[in-house]
Queue: 3 jobs
Job 1
Amino acid sequence: MKITDVKTFLMEGGRRQWVFVKIETDEGIHGWGEGTLERHERAVAQAIHDVSIRIDGRDPTQVERLWQSLYRHGFWKGGPVIGSAISALDQALWDITGKVYGQPVYKLIGGQVRDRVRAYTHAQDLTGVRGLVDEGFSAFKTGGWVVGDDEVNENRIPEALREKIGVMRREVGPDVDIMIDNHGRSRPALAIKQIAAIEDLNVKFFEEPVPPENLDSLQLVRNAGFHTELATGERLYFRWGYKDLIARRLVDVIQPDICHGGGISELRRIAAAAETEHILVAPHNPNGPVACAASVQLCAAIPNFMILETARDMPWHDDVQKKPLKITDGFYELPTEPGLGIDLDEDVIASRPFNEDTHDRRYVPSVNAEDGSPADV
């Protein structure tokens, strides 16, 4: 079997625009992957074209050999764009390999260690919280900055966060898990105040308390000695991006993204490294359907899995799948079909082309401090 073609597709998915890759072979077996990267979709599509030349005409079932070629033979390594391109291709290679051997991917990477995959999604107010609980979810995540959309006053952030989480906790009771995503927007001193404000409200984890590029800043938060667990990792790439974070045990939970961090192959290695330090894995996954399917396959097979993020506010997430993944009472059922367990409808993809008009305004608003200076989003 040989790879004969690599095609990319950009699709307007609702709140995101998705980047899909399809690898075709001379035996008629194809595989899907996803490299969605908000606001950089066209860059990823081009990167997929550039790096896929390294695997053209080769056996797609030699997944590890091809992964090494994709990573090593480009000289420039790492980063979100190249990481997303390699991740998408890796997913598609595993999809093909599973189909060749007639098995779900999780059976080829060690077999399942759990019978279903626990998931959480997002809620920003009580209406959203009630809806998720009614759907059967027992966990949700909400934002850590809650004052203003365009301008922020840091002095009000901790108190406002406590009020928000307190209301949510009273609504759902003690048994539903609440997680906070701070998006790395705070300085260490402010992050410490935020966590102190919610320390008694039984938050599952506090995500990205500070920007991810400076581990010493994260160390300051860690040294504050909170009981609330810390999480980070969605903006780290490949195992080398996690090496010091894991070795210094700066967080309790890591959040690699299967779209950016190196695909199924690399996230298995990252998870194994984290397991040696008793760190759990809660993959970042606000992405499209292929990334979600690949994440479910991974989560089924890694022992230190905690919970999987999923996006429930994208109507085309299910519609583009010929047979959507099943989620029941907040748990994904393990697919039994070979490969990733899904296939995409190319007619549906074509009906939702990349949206040039909304591309530059989508996803993330501009956020400024009170004096108008740009702040982290």
Job 2
Amino acid sequence: MKELVEVIAKALVDHPDEVVVNEKSDGKGTKIELHVAPSDMGKVIGKQGRIAKAIRTVVKAASSKEDEYVDVDII
């Protein structure tokens, strides 16, 4: 899932070299943290959070195939 989030984020931003994705596992599932440059934050979130919601939806659909819970946080 980490690679999926990274590919999507790098395609959206102006500074793809500053995209950092961290993956942490806990008892409930996996938490993915997406870090982007401050100037790219609006591109990743989108108007009214539409892009962020779409990223979360794609990751949720991909993780359901593996029967795993994944949460995406944009930091």
Job 3
Amino acid sequence: MTLPLFHMISGGARPVAPYSHAVEADGWVFLTGQIPNHPDDDSRPFPPDVEDQTRRVMDNLVIVLGGVGLGLEHVVAGRVFLTHFEEDYERMNAVYLSYFPSNRLPARTCIGVTALAREARIEIDFIARRSEQGR
């Protein structure tokens, strides 16, 4: 195993805790969970509804993926964390699904939680895999 690479992505959302945007080891890329903070202005309030929060989170993840030379097609698994599970699950799914072809959905777990950083309604993390040619 090679030593891991720790990535901080220029243009990515400002971390709200001590972490790297992504860590890469042997072709596996682990993306830290993103909340709906805006990369251009961290002081901007979060969107009030889960649909717009989901879009912002997914866009933040796309920025991180792009920063390591990957895209959504490289995502193999994800975890979604919702603070209002019953209320937001279906609405979040509709937005989430719009980012992937229906025949290429990553493995996924969705978990109801009591709270997230900065009172976000949603957080999503990803695991991606770099192709052998991309190493």
